[in-house]
Amino acid sequence: xxxxxxxxxxxxxxxxxxxxxxxxxxxxxxxxxxxxxxxxxxxxxxxxxxxxxxxxxxxxxxxxxxxxxxxxxxxxxxxxxxxxxxxxxxxxxxxxxxxxxxxxxxxxxxxxxxxxxxxxxxxxxxxxxxxxxxxxxxxxxxxxxxxxxxxxxxxxxxxxxxxxxxxxxxxxxxxxxxxxxxxxxxxxxxxxxxxxxxxxxxxxxxxxxxxxxxxxxxxxxxxxxxxxxxxxxxxxxxxxxxxxxxxxxxxxxxxxxxxxxxxxxxxxxxxxxxxxxxxxxxxxxxxxxxxxxxxxxxxxxxxxxxxxxxxxxxxxxxxxxxxxxxxxxxxxxxxxxxxxxxxxxxxxxxxxxxxxxxxxxxxxxxxxxxxxxxxxxxxxxxxxxxxxxxxxxxxxxxxxxxxxxxxxxxxxxxxxxxxxxxxxxxxxxxxxxxxxxxxxxxxxxxxxxxxxxxxxxxxxxxxxxxxxxxxxxxxxxxxxxxxxxxxxxxxxxx
Length: 494
Prior knowledge:
Radius of gyration: 26 Å
Strand content: 5-15%
Helix content: 40-55%
Shape: elongated
Number of helices: 19
Distance between the termini: 22 Å
Structural class: mainly alpha
Oligomer: single chain
Strand order of the largest sheet: 4-6-7
Number of domains: 2
CATH class of the largest domain: Mainly Alpha
CATH superfamily of the largest domain: Fumarase/aspartase (Central domain)
CATH topology of the largest domain: Fumarase C, Chain A, domain 2
Largest sheet: 3 strands, antiparallel
Order of helices and strands: EHEHHEHHEEHEEHHHHHHHHEEHHHHH
């Protein structure tokens, strides 16, 4: 797959392509022209301008008033990358590193950053060769760009730091020798351009929103199985109800659930109960609200994918170099906190449905197993689910409302967007486990409705799931069943 960097990203589908295919980045002639034009402008401006230019002829942050000799400008940029490489914690997954490289190349290609073409091409070399710098998930304040993680990402360009290549770890020096790359000698402004920007936050955010969309769709399908297994009613999903409260996500969810249940012998039979608990009856309202949130957040993230986010901003056509704030991660921070909440709610209502399924109601055996007492059955999977739901509630405390002074007060309001996106990543992975446990329970409960069948589409889904996880007749080791259910969901294409 060829990724033409000249073209804007229109949707998440293009990003899914980057993640799922062997992708080659192509720097088109227009991008090359923009990059060279901006660099030439900067070089000429530096020759003619006597006043200091932030980050180019000065120090950084609160050291912005310290002038740097022309002979030391390259060393200044190298020092910046080395000293700022302070990311810590867990290694960032390779698929997210892949996005970081792609988004950094994209941002630099607009021609507002002042980097040399060879620097952008070297980033593309790393991407195209599948050489992924080792970056860690802690250390960014999400305001002066993602300084620490982006510094770690860019160290190998200089023959420093570490990378992974075909599953093996290499030093930056060794990978450059192996690939025949001469380590870069950074020119003025280049280190700052590489480190300023939101690419760490953005890459996690995009990965999160892609997974959130899938989990939202899976939540609908699993909820439909639970509704049938619980002997629920179809009426709450009829369109007349939702036409008088026409939130888009609510209406979409009701339609999806109604369609999933079409043809079910269970849903069609006479019901003794007048209404269902909220966790079944209010699926359109709860799942729908999350859908609307996800759709809104996606628009924000797509805009960010097509933006230049470093500082200073170089505007050749306006003959201007502006020290501004496009590196500030507030749009990503606020919306990643919002996304965490939206997805966490899918998990919260999922756990409630599971609780109802194991409660011994509506003809289902206690804990969904024969001879309850001798067998504990599905008692403890719900405990595990509840524990994860509780952890998500703690994690959903917003990060974007926090700020800590940095750089001696020069950077006095930061977004904490990096913490927001990595927190959201944890929440989303947690919800995947929560939904897996609901499916584990719902498929089990459905067997107690035999010989009645659910709808053809749901029976087919459960049948595929049974290739991974068997019906539980008497107590078995359960954690492996849950892990297999997670694997099943990860492989589902919707």
